[in-house]
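User: quick one, sequence for these C-alpha cells?
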C-alpha cells in the first residue's frame, strides 16, 4: 500500500503533500476577512485553540476573531469539502460512472424537506442544531427508503439500476412534499429556506464542526478501508466473488457510508453541488484509478477546494458588504467542467 504502483505516488506521500497543502490553505483562508491578521498571530491563535500553547499568550481580540468566527467556518469547509469528495469518489466507483455524485440517492431532497420542517415549526430558532438534526433525519430517511425499495424489488440484492431509479422516484416525492409545505409557510420561512438551499458556511460555529466531525471522519476512514474492495468489484461481480469479495454486500455498505457522510454534511451546510463530482475526476487523472489513493487525494483536494471557494466568497463580500453562498461559487466553477466532462465522455463507458 505504501509503495509505488505503476509509477504512481504511494498513499503516504499523497497524504503528506495533501496534509501540508491543506494546512497552508487553512492558514491563508483564516487570514482573509474585514480585519487583516498576520500569519504568526493566526498560527499562535490556532495553536492556542487546540491547546498547544496557553490562551493568555495570544491577543484576546485576535483570538476571539479567529477562534470564535473564522476557524470554525474554515474547518466546516474542510470537513464538508473532503467528505463530499470522498463520497463522490465511492459513488462514482460503485455506479461505474464518473458523472455520479454524493447526492445521487436523494440525500439533498430528503435533507431539504427536513430542514423546511424545522423552519416551518420554528425549531431552528430555538436551538442551533435543530435544523441540522432535522435535515439529517430527512436525508437518512430518503436513503433508507431507496435502499429498501431496491432490496424489495431484487430479492435481497442491490442493483445499481434499481437504486438510481428508486432515487429518482424518492427524490421527486420529497421534492413534491417540500413544494407542498412551501405553499403553507409564510414568506419569511420561504426566504430562509431558499437561502439554505444555496449551500453556505456563513455563521458556522464549533457546534457545527463537532456535528460533522465524527460522521465525516468516521465514514471517510471506513470508506478508505473498503476502497480496495471496490477496485476488485470493478472487475465484475463474478470475478470479485471468485476473489473473495461479495459485491452486493460491499456495494450496499459503501453506499450507506457515503450517504451517511453526505447527509451529515448537507444537514449543516445545505446542498453544495459539484464538489463530489469534479474533485474525484480531477484527482483520478493525477493519482490514478486506485480508489484508496483516490480517497486520500480527494479528501485533501475537496477540503482545499471548498475552503478556497469560501475564501473567495469572503473576499468578494469585503467589497459590497453582501455575502454570496459558497454553493454559487462551486456551481459557477463546476457547471462548465461538468459540461466539458459530458462532451468528453460522449459514447464512452467508465473505467476506473
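Assistant:
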Amino acid at each position: 500500500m505504501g509503495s509505488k504502483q505503476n509509477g504512481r505516488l504511494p498513499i503516504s506521500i499523497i497524504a503528506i503533500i495533501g496534509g501540508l497543502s491543506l494546512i497552508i490553505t487553512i492558514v491563508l483562508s483564516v487570514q482573509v476577512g474585514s480585519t487583516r491578521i498576520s500569519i504568526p498571530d493566526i498560527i499562535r491563535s490556532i495553536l492556542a485553540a487546540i491547546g498547544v500553547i496557553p490562551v493568555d499568550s495570544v491577543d484576546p481580540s485576535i483570538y476571539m476573531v479567529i477562534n470564535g468566527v473564522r476557524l470554525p467556518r474554515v474547518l466546516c469547509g474542510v470537513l464538508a469539502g473532503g467528505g463530499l469528495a470522498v463520497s463522490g469518489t465511492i459513488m462514482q466507483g460503485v455506479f461505474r460512472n464518473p458523472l455520479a455524485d454524493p447526492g445521487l440517492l436523494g440525500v439533498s431532497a430528503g435533507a431539504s424537506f427536513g430542514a423546511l420542517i424545522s423552519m416551518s415549526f420554528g425549531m431552528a430558532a430555538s436551538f442551533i442544531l435543530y435544523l441540522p438534526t432535522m435535515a439529517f433525519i430527512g436525508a437518512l430517511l430518503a436513503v433508507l427508503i431507496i435502499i429498501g425499495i431496491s432490496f424489495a424489488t431484487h430479492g435481497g440484492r442491490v442493483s445499481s439500476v434499481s437504486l438510481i431509479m428508486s432515487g429518482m422516484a424518492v427524490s421527486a416525492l420529497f421534492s413534491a412534499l417540500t413544494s407542498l409545505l412551501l405553499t403553507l409557510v409564510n414568506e419569511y420561512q420561504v426566504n430562509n429556506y431558499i437561502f439554505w438551499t444555496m449551500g453556505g458556511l456563513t455563521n458556522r460555529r464549533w457546534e457545527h464542526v463537532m456535528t460533522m466531525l465524527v460522521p465525516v471522519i468516521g465514514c471517510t476512514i471506513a470508506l478508505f478501508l473498503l476502497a480496495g474492495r471496490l477496485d476488485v468489484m470493478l472487475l465484475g461481480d463474478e470475478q470479485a466473488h471468485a476473489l473473495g469479495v461479495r459485491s452486493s454486500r460491499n456495494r450496499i455498505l459503501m453506499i450507506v457510508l457515503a450517504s451517511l457522510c453526505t447527509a451529515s454534511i448537507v444537514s449543516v451546510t445545505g446542498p453544495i453541488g459539484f464538489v463530489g463530482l469534479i474533485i474525484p475526476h480531477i484527482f483520478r487523472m493525477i493519482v490514478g484509478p486506485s480508489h484508496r489513493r483516490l480517497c486520500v487525494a480527494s479528501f485533501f483536494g475537496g477540503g482545499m477546494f471548498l475552503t478556497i471557494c469560501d475564501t473567495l466568497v469572503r473576499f468578494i463580500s469585503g467589497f459590497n458588504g453582501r455575502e454570496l453562498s459558497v454553493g454559487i461559487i462551486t456551481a459557477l466553477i463546476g457547471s462548465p467542467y461538468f459540461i466539458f466532462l459530458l462532451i468528453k465522455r460522449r459514447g464512452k463507458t467508465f473505467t476506473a
